[in-house]
Amino acid sequence: MKRLHGKNILLGITGGIAAYKSAELTRRLKDAGADVRIAMTKAATEFVTPLTFQALSGHPVHTELLDEHAEAGMGHIELARWADAILVAPASANFITKLTQGRADDLLSTLCLATEAPLAFAPAMNQAMWHDLATQANCKTLRQRGLFQFGPAAGEQACGEVGEGRMMEVPDLIDHLANCFEHGELQALNVMITAGPTYEPIDPVRFIGNRSSGRMGYALAEAAREAGASVTLVSGPCHLETPERVQRIDVETAKQMHQVVFAHLPQCDIFIAAAAVADYRPAEARDQKIKKDHESLTLELERNPDILSEVAHSQTRPFVVGFAAETQNLAQHAKDKLQRKNLDMIAANLVGQSDNTKQDIGFNSEYNSLQVFWPDGQTTLETTRKTLLARQLIQLIANHYQQKKNNEKDTA
């Protein structure tokens, strides 16, 4: 099973003899299903050439802080946003000190400061350097800040000494990195997520649909599974791979989605309606293709069932999260929908435009930003890749779900 399938992993390599192991690590990350980019410090290039890692990863290796080929010369920001996780392996004592101090005097250290993705480091150094009080204090500080420390391992070292300080072996690094995406906020809960568009047939070859790609819903399904949930993904027509260990049920129309959702609702703890369900459908779908015989064509449309509202008003309702894709007056429309449909939370985003960073967001984009509202509060999740955004939203949902359950116990 490829536990890192579809993950964007930025591998940082610092100066040390263990850098030769990072070549094998690059290969194994790719074997595990990850897309790998490499950032090397200047010292690292003295041990292994960038060309080696370019051949292994299939991508140019990044070594310079200011990249004239990157958008606006800000390659470090692009890479920081791209990564689902950053692993620095080997992490030298000097680089660990940089991380602790928050220094940003080269590309890799700047990437570590600029990312919002999980950050892990694999110490590799002489055993005496590892046991030095300063190194121990630095690693403790980084762990307290939420960084993941992998190793070091013990054994014979390149200098001839024996003890702790060796970089953790590659298979163990892969396992530890995969575990970074696994956490238990939704452990033992059943989460149902709708995703993608619906297609409402006009005739055998035409339909009413929308521009939804399904990326946000699929990213949420993956993030919920990583959080320990049992996930059912009810998907409209999408050309996306099903996240691992997620049950996917394909539908085409709003009526089909409605039927599947309510068939699974009794077992559902959290319902997330990320699908862009068509509000209307043709009152009558023709059996044969409509010919272009007239200058105009009038279609009679009728309302589709409001799946989100019906779930939120059901007798044994789950925790209900809606989405609002708007082109204007985002906050006003989202708050109205939150109240009118009896939701616990709503995530709203603008579609069909770019945000102030000139990054395309919303439909058919890998990026998005969200304004999230609940009855007595709100927050903003800034523009980032949908995979990272999904994890942030799932964390927020998990917190509010647990808070609601605790309140219910207190008032019982």
Give me the secondary-structure topology.
Blueprint: E1 8-13, H1 21-31, E2 35-40, H2 50-57, H3 75-82, E3 85-91, H4 93-101, H5 107-114, E4 119-123, H6 127-131, H7 133-144, E5 148-149, E6 153-156, E7 162-166, H8 170-179, E8 190-195, E9 200-203, E10 206-208, H9 215-226, E11 230-235, E12 247-250, H10 254-264, E13 270-273, E14 280-282, E15 301-303, H11 307-312, E16 319-326, H12 330-340, E17 345-350, E18 367-374, E19 377-385, H13 386-411
Parallel strand pairs: 1-2, 1-3, 3-4, 4-5, 8-11, 8-13, 11-12, 13-16, 16-17
Antiparallel strand pairs: 6-7, 9-10, 14-15, 17-18, 18-19
Q: Main β-sheet: number of strands, strand sense, barrel status?
A: 8 strands, mixed
- Helix share, percent: 25-40%
Strand content: 15-25%
Query: Could you say which overall geometry the principal axes of the C-alpha atoms support?
Result: elongated
What is the CATH superfamily classification of the largest domain?
A: CoaB-like
User: Which fold name is given in CATH as the topology of the largest domain?
Assistant: Rossmann fold
What is the rounded Rg? Answer: 25 Å
**Secondary structure: number of strands:** 19
For the record, the CATH class of the largest domain is Alpha Beta
Mean pLDDT: 89
The figure for the number of domains is: 2
With helices defined by DSSP (H or I, 4 residues minimum), what is the helix count? Answer: 13
Q: Examine the secondary-structure arrangement and name the CATH architecture of the largest domain.
A: 3-Layer(aba) Sandwich
Class by SSE composition: alpha/beta
